[in-house]
């Protein structure tokens, strides 16, 4: 999240904490830290929301889950050297000696 007033407000922080989400704030004046997440959400909306009618939360959840799976395994972003996010993550873990629980 960026450091906008809505994200640092106590009410918002308490709600996020209630949902079990750990807040992660972008570094001040380091636009790229939040830009990556914003670009992903733009792509997500372009792929699953624009031009579609989702009638229930369950339909939306299914569409998001399907897109995330497709994105992580089959998309080849330039920023990753045209390697899928899953493969990039696995390579990083291997390089840093991190074991991943199954």
Question: What would you note in describing this structure?
Answer:
- By secondary structure, this protein is an all-alpha fold.
- It has two domains: 1-52, no CATH class; 61-102, no CATH class.
- The chain has helices at residues 5-8, 10-18, 31-48, 57-74, 85-95.
- The radius of gyration is 17 Å and the shape is globular.
- The model has no long low-confidence stretch (mean pLDDT 89).
What layout of secondary structure does this protein have?
Layout: H1 5-8, H2 10-18, H3 31-48, H4 57-74, H5 85-95
Primary descriptors:
5 helices; 2 domains; 102 residues
Mean pLDDT: 89
Q: How many DSSP-defined strands?
A: 0
Domain count, please report it. 2
Instruction: Classify the oligomer.
Output: single chain
Structural class: mainly alpha
* End-to-end Cα distance: 29 Å
Please estimate the helix content.
55-70%
Number of helices: 5
| Unreliably modeled segments | none
The radius of gyration computed from the alpha-carbon positions, rounded to a whole number of angstroms, is 17 Å
Major sheet characteristics? none
DSSP strand content: under 5%
What is the helix/strand order? HHHHH
In short:
The chain is an all-alpha fold. The chain has helices at residues 5-8, 10-18, 31-48, 57-74, 85-95.
């Amino acid at each position: 999240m960026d450091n906008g007033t809505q994200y640092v407000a106590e009410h918002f922080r308490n709600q996020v904490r209630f949902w079990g989400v750990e807040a992660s704030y972008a570094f001040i004046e380091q636009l790229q830290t939040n830009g990556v997440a914003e670009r992903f959400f733009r792509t997500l909306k372009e792929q699953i929301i624009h031009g579609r009618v989702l009638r229930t939360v369950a339909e939306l959840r299914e569409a998001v889950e399907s897109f995330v799976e497709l994105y992580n395994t089959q998309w080849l972003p330039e920023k990753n050297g045209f390697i899928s996010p899953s493969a990039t993550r696995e390579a990083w873990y291997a390089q840093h000696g991190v074991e991943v629980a199954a």
